[in-house]
Amino acid sequence: MTDAAPSVSDIQKYFASASFTQSAARLAQCPLDEGLETAFAGRSNAGKSSAINRLTGQKKLARTSKTPGRTQLINFFMLKDQQRLVDLPGYGYAKVAINKKLEWQKHLEQYLEKRTSLTGLVLVMDVRHPLQPYDVIMLDWVKQYDLRCHILLTKADKLKRGAAKQALMAVKHAVKGQHNTSVQLFSAAKGDGVETARQVLFDWLH
Fold this sequence. Notes:
21% strand, alpha/beta, 206 residues, globular
């Protein structure tokens, strides 16, 4: 006899249990590479921290800032049974010095390449400005390291429904050759797409 599938409420409670555990500046400082974790990546102003906060139902879990580029560390949030959400450093912000950008890029690639507990990557893009150069680099890494990827097109409430759907179709077309990549619209402000995203992450972590 198999266990019943978890309900929407069960999944909501699962993500609500998230708690900050530690930050790391480089791979060697990360928690032990065991269990399962899903990482969030995206441009510094794409709404990554807001998405994590909405998915967990905790307004202050991931640090949000009006100054993009403030999240310069890899931040780990424990769920249960060695299952984690990981907030990767925001990338691509123009006011960050080029040497700092290159350093972040190196640590990001090392994490994606070597972290064996990584089950997939959530790539966060502003629906109004998707597929920026650094996003394309991330998608190339996803393909290179054969990672699962789920794209959240955030701030969907900022566009009319037709324009948002058009952006969704354009991104789906752009990644259609990557068999392990999916895309959805998402709004941290309105809650649109939250249950869909939680289900994807829950499946990856189980």
